[in-house]
Amino acid sequence: MAGDVILAIDQGTTNTKALLVGPHAEIVARASRPMTLAHPRPGWTEQNAEHIWASVAAVIEDLVVAAPGHRITAVAISNQRETIVAWDARTGRPIAPAISWQCRRSSERCARLRAEGLEAFVSERSGLGLDPLFPAAKLAWLLEAVPEAAALATSGDLRVGTIDSWLLWNLTGGKVHATDLSNASRTQLLNLRARDWDPELAALFGVPLAALPRLQDSDADFGRVAAGVCALPADIPVRAIMGDSHAALFGHVQAAPGAVKATIGTGSSIMAATDSLVRSTHGLSSTIAWSQGGETVYALEGNITVSGQAAAFATQLLGAADEQALTDLATSVETSDGVVFVPALAGLGAPHWDDRARGAISGMTLGTRPAHVARATFEAIALQIVDVIEAMQADLAHPLSEIRVDGGATRNTFLLQLLSDLLSKDVARQDSPEASALGVARMAALALDAPMQAEEAPLLRFTPRMADARRSQIQRDWRQAIARARSHA
Questions:
Q1: Selected residue with higher pLDDT from 429 and 78
Q2: Pick among 3.10.280.10, 3.40.50.300, 3.30.420.40, 3.10.310.10: CATH of 3-244
Q3: Most buried of 153, 241, 248, 368, CB within 10 angstroms?
């Protein structure tokens, strides 16, 4: 035998990845499949839930074929958060497409609840403000709009959950409907202090408690892989589940206690673990980072709706060959020449929380070239993170010295240098971009009482080198552009 490994699944918005991770946190093998998004109406974003499961089964098969001599001791799941699936317990078939975290179809419901003065109540219980990002309002929409949902709720056959619970259901052959507290804390249906589903929140959104998954710690024994559901042998345990941003933070904290991390992907999640439940007064969310052995770690988080996706949008808008070509275009000029891009393409997330804001490019003149717009795009990705970090510093009342980054967009070193410049802080990236998968693999290893004996991977560090006057001007232009984007709502 070549050795024991953990199979870590990282199911994301645009890619499904899986790793075989060895006892020293080394990646033995990896596989991936691209995912697609559908936009059937303006502001709507959804995915095919069956395709999501099929992509997971495909990467599992790839790994089993690639490393036949290894013994898989456990499965660990990290997943895109806030995307919701509803299915029929009798057939295991989804009754509607998965509603993506980016989807804004529940905006009107959130606005109505806000107008009724309920935001403070919802936020106090769940830690989350009223925004269509979160699943509770999406589920309320689904239960009203999909006739089958109400019928199944009445018969007791409706099952709903975030992507982790959908994958767990399929891996266990429909035997287990469960989730972990990190994912549950993102639904807006969990009482953060009680660490349980909140009956009053469920009633407010019209969600039947019986349809929700069982709550477990992130390192629980979630169940066993069923025979014939995928290429894995039967009875392998699922020993860790975490939301992708939580898993990334867990990995960083294992290496650097007290770390603040920014996961930069399609959107961005900036998160800091806290000793206790901290209530933000600067537009951030309170959440559960993870729950391990019955002990809960909380976090402050800022979510950005469109982050790395802004580069993909600009690539298409400007007719660049790919995102590397967009980067080359951006680096061909020294500044954006006053051009500012606000990528509010699906509203604005933290700390502004304005789901009616619209994307805008401002500051153009007759001398503006595509290169200036390209550079403004990368500045925008960084500046959104700056806004969240500044809010986090205000909430925590102490300076944050270094930011750890991970996620697909962090392969772009130009972006990371811009981020360091505009933050005026050091930014550090590990060699491996697979922070979420490695983080949840570490959690599973601890659950098996076989902690990974890993030295911290080498860090690529970026230090600020932008002049203060230039940084201040860029930030002034950004604040003005944000105000204009919000006034157009």
A1: 78
A2: 3.30.420.40
A3: 241
